C-alpha cells in the first residue's frame, strides 16, 4: 500500500508485497555505533551564532564525529535562529571534508518541495555528496500559521510533500539520504514503505512502544533500514552513567547512530564544546568496538600525540 498508513498484515510480506526482513538487526549493542552532534543554533546575535556553529562543526570533525546536524527554527521558536539550515550547511561544507552534514530537521509541510530539492542539491554538491536531509512534520503551530498552512493537517501534508520530494531529488536512490523525524506509528510505517531513514528522539525507557515501532520498521523497510537516535547528554550524569543509559535503551538495538545534543537546547557555545570533548574523550573510546577504537579516533590520537 503506497500510503503506508496501515500496519503490515503479517511478517511474511512487506508493505508493497516485498520480502520482509526477519529477525533482529545485527547491532544489538553499542558496537559500531556512529556518533553525530546536533545544535539548535541559538544565541543573541544570528551572525555570531552562525560563525560559532561553523567553528563547532570544525571541532566536531577534528574530534572524529561522523555527522553534524543543525535544527531549523522559524522566527526564534525555542530560541533557535536558523530558518534556512541548508544555507548554513553549505558554509560548513567549505570548512569540513569527511563528516556528514544533516538538517535536524526541516519542517517539510512549510516547504515548496521543488525549491527544497534544488537547495538540497546545491548543498549536496558543495559538500561533495555529504548531505543528509532530515525532515519532519513540524511542531510549531505559529510557524504553520505564518506560512499559511493548516497545522492540524501537517502530517498528511508532510507525507504528500515527501512523495513529491522523492520524485524531484536527483540520483537513483534519493530515499537513502532522507531521514524522517517522527514518533507516530503510522508515519514509521510510511517511512518503511518509502525506504527513508528514521530519526527518533523518543527514549525507550519513557516510551516503551518505540522498540516495537523500530522493530516493525526494520522488518518491512524497503532497502537498507537506517535509524538514528537523538539523545541529550545530561549535564550532571557521568560518562559511565551515559553509556549504561544508552546500552539499556530499548531503542538502541535498532539504531546505527546516536546524535548527541547538549542540554538545554539554548546552551551557550562553551557548553557545546564541553559536550563535544566529553563525548570524544570519555564516551567514544569506550564504545564496544571489535578493535577497541572508533572510526576517526586514530586521527584524533595522532593529532593529540603531535601537540
Automatic annotation (TrEMBL):
Keywords in alphabetical order: Monooxygenase, Oxidoreductase
Residues covered by region (Disordered): 1-25, 287-307
Cellular component, GO annotation: cytosol
Keyword Oxidoreductase part of the UniProt annotation: yes
UniProt-recorded Gene Ontology molecular function terms: monooxygenase activity; oxidoreductase activity, acting on paired donors, with incorporation or reduction of molecular oxygen
SUPFAM superfamilies found in the cross-reference section: Bacterial luciferase-like
Biased composition (Basic and acidic residues): 287-301
The keyword Oxidoreductase appears for this protein: yes
Positions of the Luciferase-like domain: 39-242
Alphabetical list of PANTHER family matching this protein: LUCIFERASE-LIKE MONOOXYGENASE
Protein name according to UniProt: Luciferase-like monooxygenase
InterPro entries in alphabetical order: Bact_Lucif_Oxidored (IPR050766), Luciferase-like_dom (IPR011251), Luciferase-like_sf (IPR036661)
Pfam families, per the entry: Bac_luciferase
Cleaved signal peptide residues: none
Taxonomic lineage from the root: Bacteria, Bacillati, Actinomycetota, Actinomycetes, Pseudonocardiales
